[in-house]
Prior knowledge:
- This protein has twelve helices and eleven strands.
- By secondary structure, the chain is an alpha/beta fold.
- The relative contact order is 0.11.
Amino acid sequence: MGCSKWRAAFNxxxxxxxxxxxxxxxxxxxxxxLFYSLNGYCDSLPPPVFxxxxxxxxxxxxxxxxxxxxAHGASPLExxxxxxxxxxxxxxxxxxxxxxxxxxxxxxxxxxxxxTRALLEFLRIHPDVRAVGAEPHFFDRFYDxxxxxYRNLMPRTLEGQITMEKTPSYFITKEAPRRVxxxxxHTKLIVVVRDPVTRAVSDYTQTLSKSPGLPTFRNLxxxxxxxxxxxxxxxxxxxxxxxxxxxxxxxxxxxxHFLFVSGERLVTDPAGEMGRVQDFLGLKRVVxxxxxxxxxxKGFPCLKKPEGSSRPRCLGKSxxxxxxQIPSEVLLRLRDFYRPxxxxxxxxxxxxxxxx
Length: 356
C-alpha cells in the first residue's frame, strides 16, 4: 500500500515536470532571441562622443589622418558658419553626413592682398576640392585650441577629395612653419604673390576703408621721409619682403612642397594659372577657360554663372576697390627698396615674376 502511494506520487511529479519542459525550452529560446536582437540594435547606434579628457586630447586617427565618422561634435566656429545643408541647430544633415573630417592636405598660406580669396573661390569649383570658407587662423592665432579643434573646422571629404584652407597671415608668422610641420610633413603649400609695391597700396586701401582717419601712405611707409628710410615695421611694407618669409619656411619644408602663384597672372590668365595649381595638387584639370569671364567694372575675372544660378559669381564689394593716388616719388622709392628682395625671391623660387 505504501509503495503504491509513493509510486503514484512519483509518477504524478514526473508528469508535472514533463508538462513544464516545453514552457522552459520556450523561455530559453525567447531570451536567446531577445539577447541577439538587442545586441544588434546596440551595434547600430552611433559611437559615443569622444571624451576630450582622453590621452593627448586627440581622437585616434585612421591611416589617412581621418576622423571616425560621428566621433566629434561641431566646433564653435563651425556652428557659427554651418556647412551648406546643415540644420539650424548646427548638426550636419543626412545629406552631409558622408565622409570624414581630415587635416588639410594643402594650405594657401599667403599672401594678404595677393589674390588668395580669388584662388580659393576658383578652386572650389573643382568637385575634388573641399575647403573651409572662413580663414581658420589656427597656426597663428588659435594654436592653443589644439589640432582636434582645427580638424573639426574642416568639411567632410570623401575618398579622393582634397581638404584645403587658406589663411594668408601664415606666410609671415614665424611659428607657423614648425606648427604646420607638426601636423604633417606632407602638406602642400600655396603662396599667391603680387608686386609688393602694388600689394602694399592695396593693403593700405583696405585699412583706409575701415579707418578713414588713417595717416597718409607716405607717412606710414617712411620712418624718416626726408632721408627716404622705409619703415619695415609697418605690416603693409613688411609682408612684401617675400624672400625673408620664405627663408623661414624653407627651414622646415623643401621647395618642392611650395607652389608660387602669380597674383597678376591670376587676373590676366586665370585658367592658365589654375592649370598649374591643379597639376600641383594632383587634380584633373577641370577648372578651365569656360569658367571665367573678365569683369570690366571690377577689373578682374569672375566666374560664369553655374547651373541653377541666375547670375555670375564675382568676389565681394571689398575686392577691386580704386586705390588712392600715391605720389610717384614714394612708389619709386619703394620699388628701389624692394628690388634686392625681389631678385633674391626670384632666385629662391626659380621664377621671375617681372616686378622690376
